[in-house]
Amino acid sequence: MTGTQLPLVFDAPLRGKAPKHWLDLTPDERVDATQRLGLPRFRADQISRHVFDRLEDDVERFTDLPAAIRDDLGAQLFPRLLEQVTQRTADAGATVKTLWRLHDGSLLESVLMRYPGRSTLCISSQAGCGMACPFCATGQGGLQRNLSQAEITIQALAANQMLASGVVPGASGRLNNIVFMGMGEPLANYKAVMGAIRTLLAPTPEGFGMSARGITVSTVGLVPKIQQLTTEGLPLTLAVSLHAPDDELRDEIVPINTRWKVGEVVDAAWEYARVTKRRVSIEYAMMRDINDQVQRAELLAQVLKKRGDWGWVHVNLIPLNPTPGSKWTASRKADERAFMQTLERRGVPVTLRDTRGSEIDGACGQLAATVRE
Fold first, then answer.
1. Could you tell me which residues are beta bridge partners of residue 33?
2. Which residues of the sequence carry a binding annotation for [4Fe-4S] cluster (predicted)?
3. Which residues participate in the annotated binding site?
4. Residues 191 and 334 in one domain
5. What range does the domain containing 27 cover?
6. 332 and 209 share a domain?
7. Annotation: binding site for [4Fe-4S] cluster
């Protein structure tokens, strides 16, 4: 893409490094940290039960611990990581977008959505994003820094606290699903994201006890990291933001394609499906007169079919959400239908995503972490 700098890909420096938190630690590291505070090892289990069973991260509520040690515990292992700046709602309160400020002033957003019988959190893995996709508000803002494992995980803790406190009307229980589709490219912050995922999956009291099938990791196509994810032995859902079936267009709208081409990305996704037995989601944002032509639907079907029968993949069409000052806009409904029908005629499993939160800039591609007056 002429004039566009190739994005920084893997593990950007953690500028303004977050202080160490209980949520950064493995179960064994929690025991060690507890003992370094002069406490017996059983206290680690007590602390974890507060966090993962009771959803408490205020040490003053850990009343089964001696009051004399709570200050040290709070200062050393429970620093305040997120401060709520604003909270906006849509869909009669079923969608809640929270703007958070981190300890160094960096901003990020997460979106909590209630559906019938389930709750989903769209979680951020970076403050900003370095992938530079021109139709995405997050990408156009650039990358500030990676989030730490705890800064990622605590978004899930905060969402569970919201559900428990009744912030989302009609919601009950805990998060069922987490989608790494917020700010940032998750696989560019691989170590922290995988650490957060393992904490989300660990049974209580060592983690939140979620199901791997309830966690989706999205990527624009960082092939080596998709290959690494394939070896993790976790049946997560992989979502690949493809947005174009041909290299000429994808080079322009997804700049990382200049490094790993469509064929390489789809091959890596197919191998992930083969190894994990989990169907891959192909994300395709519909952009008017850019990528929504019937011939591109035909080409997309050809690209996907080349890798095997349709059991390995599902196409998720996304109406492009508006972003301030952008020349990119959503497809016409007629073009959207024709694209979808073309895929259906070819036998490609396809759905049109139900867009949530667009009026509060909380939908796909709209997260810009902007403070509104």
1. none
2. 129, 133, 136
3. 129, 133, 136, 184-185, 218, 241-243, 321
4. yes
5. 22-65
6. yes
7. 129, 133, 136
> Which residue is it, tokens 């029968």?
309
122 as an active site residue: the answer is: no
SS3 label, residue 38:
coil
Q: What are the two backbone dihedrals, phi and then psi, of residue 163, each rounded to the nearest 5 degrees?
A: -60, -40
CA distance 368 to 183: 8
Which residue numbers belong to the known binding site for S-adenosyl-L-methionine?
Answer: 184-185, 218, 241-243, 321
- Specify whether 93 is located in the same domain as 188: yes
The beta strand positions in 320-358, using DSSP E, are 350-352
Q: Are residues 325 and 289 in contact, defined by beta-carbon separation less than 8 angstroms?
A: no
C-alpha dihedral (73, 155, 130, 225), degrees to nearest 10: 90
Q: Is the domain of 223 the same as that of 167?
A: yes
Express as a percent the part of the chain with pLDDT over 90.
79
User: pLDDT (tens digit, 9 = 90+) per residue, 169-217?
Assistant: 888 899 999 999 999 999 999 999 999 999 999 999 999 999 999 999 9
**pLDDT, tens digit, 9 for 90 and up, residues 289-336:** 999 999 999 999 999 998 877 789 999 999 998 777 678 899 999 999
Q: Which of 56, 298, 364, 373 is catalytic?
A: 364
Q: Classify the C-alpha dihedral 311-295-326-373 as positive or negative.
A: negative
In a domain, 356, yes or no: yes
Give a yes or no: residue 33 inside a domain: yes
Within a 10 A sphere around the Cβ of 58, how many other Cβ atoms?
Answer: 11
Together in a domain, 134 and 50: no
Q: Look at the chain and report how many structural domains it folds into.
A: 2
In a domain? residue 366: no
Residue 246 pairs with which residues in a beta bridge? Answer: none
How many CB atoms are closer than 10 A to CB 101? Answer: 16
Catalytic residue among 56, 109, 151, 283: 109
Q: Which of 182, 196, 171, 53 is nearest to 119 (CA)?
A: 171
R_g of the chain, CA atoms, integer Å: 21
The reported pTM is: 0.91
Domain end, chosen from 12, 35, 65, is at: 65
The single residue listed with the structure tokens 């909590």 is 112
